[in-house]
Write a structure and sequence with these properties.
15 helices; mainly alpha; two-stranded antiparallel ribbon; about 350 residues
Amino acid sequence: MGEDSRNDSSRVVSSTKELHSGSCITNNSKACRLYTPSSDPPPTRFAVKCHRRADEVCTELDAFFARHWPWENERAREKFLAADTNRWTCWALPLARDDRILDAVKVNTLLFLLDDVVENMSVKEGKAFYKRLIPIAHGKVLPDRTDPYEWITYDVWAEMRAVDEALTEVTFEGALLCVNAQVDEGRNSCIGMGSLLKQRYKEGGVGFVAAAMRYAMDLKVTVEALDTIHAISESYSKLGIIVNDIYSFAKELRAWNTNGKEGAQILNMVMLQANETGISWEAAKRVLWILCREWELEHIDMVTRRETAAEGCDEDLKVYMKGLEYVLGGNEIWSAYTQRYHEQN
């Protein structure tokens, strides 16, 4: 056997050993690690910060909702408190004004709770439920003070209007889009990632949260200015939706298996990715995490280019774009620990 043949054989043996140890050999003979699945997502680049009044506000509103919300039973009330639901907004809106953070937390938690109620209803029941509450929320109909769904909904929105009617109306429009989409029969016809993202944008509440942020921070961003960051808003929407879907998937699946009603359907990016590619749910989550991190890079680049654009960028718009990043970072950190998505027996 010649020298070249012996060298080739030696390289094959070496390559085989490295493959078994988790390494590979590239064309230029440099070793690299093989892909190893991990349940830990790559870290986000978005900053994370909690509102300085978080403990005070959460203590007050935990007590309020624990006492007044019509819980199905004591276990449901305890699950709400264990989930740290009120703190979500404190993570998402760390730059909110001190005198508006309580309103912002309260309205976000209200939508969380209403979503849970509708999750256990058929589409027909959900439509009837929201048809009753929407005019009350809009201040067009007075509530039945013996019905907690009605008077809490009325009071939350009335208190916000008393502070800032214009920004409250914008926030209400975002909430209206969200709750109507949750009971939209057309949601069952979503095919592919594009159509599902559009539907989840409506029912996932990302537009509502962006509007609530402007209320909480008292930002006067014009419609014209918002039009100039349409791509950034879409990017924020996609990132928020997919991170939410990754973390909430197990909860949605449990609810469907336990209480699935006629006309109801799980609309979640994890299930879509798994069904379209034939991979497992856990593998689908890993793929979606990589997609999120790639979109983060594009998002940051778009924000940088908008801030330095020749047309100029006023301070409110800059703060608004930074606020969107805080929403994304805050949503991710809360979603990673909340018992809402990580239920303990």
